[in-house]
Specification:
The protein is of the alpha+beta class and about 180 residues long. The chain has a single domain, classed as Lipid/polyisoprenoid-binding, YceI-like (Lipocalin), CATH 2.40.128.110. It is about 15% helix and about 50% strand. The protein has two helices and ten strands; from the N terminus they run αβββββαβββββ. An eight-stranded antiparallel barrel has the order 1-3-4-6-7-8-9-10.
């Protein structure tokens, strides 16, 4: 009986430790901003799914592109139909690793960067995303920013609207993680 209890205790402890290694996003906000001579375009997406595994420092997120919300419905329609072609390319993805060694057991805010592959519009590019990771009790909060050159992802802007859309878009990401149960 004592052997069985010891085995069960070790199994539960192992599962508990492994569960603390994997974090899932509970809140997300991906924003992009395009500032051109004629127009300012902003959109926000709160539907991102993401996982972070501490032991391997791997970070992965998937963004449903159609979930970006714009101030003007016509901008959203053009974004989905003409530029990002969300019927053909419904998601944007990032898969990479955190570059720094961080202490995830100690509350605080740490400079961090992630290197990996960003896929938008079906085109994969190597990216470095700089930001911070805040450890707050059982939560991890990743905040990062980077720029996307539209031509790097084969997103064509017709010459007739080139003054309305910036060729480089600023992106900010805030991802709040909690241990996966």
């Amino acid at each position: 009986m004592k052997t069985i209890l010891t085995f069960l205790s070790l199994t539960i402890l192992t599962i508990s430790v492994n569960a603390q290694d994997l974090y899932a996003v509970t809140e997300s906000e991906i924003k992009f901003h395009s500032d051109s001579p004629l127009e300012k375009i902003e959109a926000i997406n709160k539907k991102t799914k993401s996982f972070f595994k501490i032991s391997s420092k791997t970070l992965m997120f998937v963004i449903p592109v159609v979930s970006f919300k714009f101030e003007k419905p016509l901008m959203e329609e053009h974004f989905n139909e003409n530029y990002l072609e969300t019927e053909k390319f419904p998601t944007a993805k990032f898969s990479g690793t955190i570059n720094e060694e961080l202490d995830y057991t100690k509350n605080g805010t740490y400079d961090a960067s992630a290197t990996g592959k960003l896929t938008i519009h079906g085109v994969e590019q190597e990216r470095l995303i700089n930001g911070t990771i805040t450890v707050k009790d059982s939560q991890l909060i990743f905040e990062g920013n980077f720029q996307i050159k539209l031509k790097d992802h084969d997103i064509d802007i017709p010459s007739i609207v080139i003054q309305n859309i910036a060729e480089v878009v600023d992106v900010t990401a805030t991802l709040v993680y909690e241990p996966k149960k």
